[in-house]
Each structure stands twice: as structure tokens, then as C-alpha cells.
Design goal:
Blueprint lengths: L2 H18 L1 H27 L4 H27 L1
Helix pairs in contact: 1-2
């Protein structure tokens, strides 16, 4: 018996329980929503926590972009 058959049997059993019992279906949806929430939380931490390299890179990039814009505006005002 291969792993595919075992996975199929587990999936079929879970689908049968979800289709026949409403409380199991609610629990299944709750677990799915919980997993989605945990994924979004982890993604937010990776993207926006100041200790992560990606967040530091984004902050530096935005700061440099704003600094260049302000320098251009300052030079434009000094020329007048």
C-alpha cells in the first residue's frame, strides 16, 4: 500500500465527516481560518518588524527616496 492510498483514505474519511456532521464542518472552517490568520500574522512580522532585514531594507529605501525628493525640492527653491 503506497502513501497515496493512505492519503486518499484520510482525505475521504475527513470529507465524509465534514459532509455528514455540521459541527465537524464548523471546526474545519475554524481551523482553516486560524491557519490563514497565523499566516497573515507571520507575513506581517516578516515584512514590518524592524529587526528583519527586509523591513530595514524597505525603511532605508523609502528614506533615501524621500531624501532625494526633498533635496530636489530644496535645490529648486534655492534657484528661485
Amino acid at each position: 500500500m503506497t502513501a497515496q492510498y493512505i492519503y486518499f483514505i484520510l482525505f475521504a474519511f475527513a470529507a465524509y465527516l465534514i459532509c455528514t456532521d455540521q459541527s465537524v464542518a464548523k471546526a474545519f472552517l475554524f481551523v482553516i481560518n486560524l491557519i490563514k490568520f497565523q499566516y497573515e500574522k507571520y507575513k506581517w512580522i516578516v515584512m514590518y518588524h524592524p529587526k528583519t532585514p527586509w523591513a530595514r531594507y524597505n525603511m532605508h529605501r523609502r528614506s533615501m527616496k524621500l531624501a532625494k525628493e526633498l533635496m530636489k525640492e530644496l535645490e529648486k527653491n534655492n534657484e528661485l
